[in-house]
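Suppose you are handed only two things: the residues of a chain and a line of SMILES describing zinc ion. What would the bound structure be? This form records exactly that question and the answer produced for it, so the two can be stored side by side and reused later without any lookup.

QUESTION INPUTS
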Amino acid sequence: MFYADDSPIVRSTKQSLWPIYACILQIPPSHRYYQRNLLTLGLSSSRIKPDVDVFLRGILAHLETLIHYGTTISLSEQEYHFVVRIQGFLVDLPAKSLFSKTINFNGRFACTWCRSPGEYNTVYRVMLYPYEKNDDQLRTHDEFVQAPQTAAAAAAGTEVIGRETIIDGCESSTLIYGPAIELYSLHSHLHLADQVRHHDGLSYSSAYAFETCIRYTKGKAHDTRNLASQISYWTNIASIIKQTEASLEVPHGANEIFLESPILEEFREKLKEFI
Ligand SMILES: [Zn+2]
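ANSWER OUTPUT
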């Protein structure tokens, strides 16, 4: 799972740091977000937003090699072959806009999941995504690439007709809070269930660990020059220092309890009614 965000690093010179981190989802949640288990894939430090093509070029080239050929790592005198698969890219909306190369994160076709259009509300002066105009048809990659032309056509007055879906929470929120609540951040909740189906359970995934990691990363740089180089130097040094081996706790929960188990004695008759 990837993560990217920006954070001011030198306020006087308005320099920001853009790190790209990754965590390994196969590591159990209790150890996954330890500092030593988070990977720093790239850093950009500048007064302006990075050019994502330049920023990602090297990272993507390495990832493509790892996806196609994998890598071999020696652990306890045994060689293991690892291949890399990308599960997701966790970012806030401004960073999503930067990395997906859209002008705004709340544009007319901001949703990367469905085709629901946004409408600029002149009263509230925000872009809203009215529930009754939802179009829950999923977008394809080709459509996403074509979206700028569609948006231009829409700006010229072409109508986009929506299809209604029923998701009570988002639908009724307008009745309670008024139409100004229908921001993109509310609309995106409509896709939460599909995203959980797509990515599996997300209850143990966290963005907070990465937020903390940015502060830790910033601590590796001093003064106002060559900040990304300083950070990458100390990150490399930290990565070659031998880590102590971590041991996993024995889980206390049980995935399965057989009906014959003595701990189900008093519930057994009742449970049998459900079988
Ligand atoms: Zn959507």
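WHAT STANDS OUT: Residues 111, 113-114, 116, 187, 190-191 surround zinc ion (CB under 6 Å). The first helix runs from residue 29 to 32.
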